[in-house]
Predict the 3D structure of the following.
Amino acid sequence: MTQSLPPEDYSDDELLAMLNPVQLAELDRQIGEMFGAEGVDRVEALIAMANVYSLRAAERDEVSALAMLQLAAAMRRRADAMLASRN
């Protein structure tokens, strides 16, 4: 019997790999809509919110924690892409 890792032990890459390309694209679109409407779709804001979601995930059940951590990983991925496009 294989024991799975707790959600917080997965890397961002592992968390995002659990999503199919359509789910990942939809998540990225939703992040853009959610933060773009408020004018906070910026690298610093995305990283800060990703950290909040990561911390709050510890207070949730395993399924909710996994979803929150995947959202945080997607936020960090979007922030990294925004940083890369600046350079």
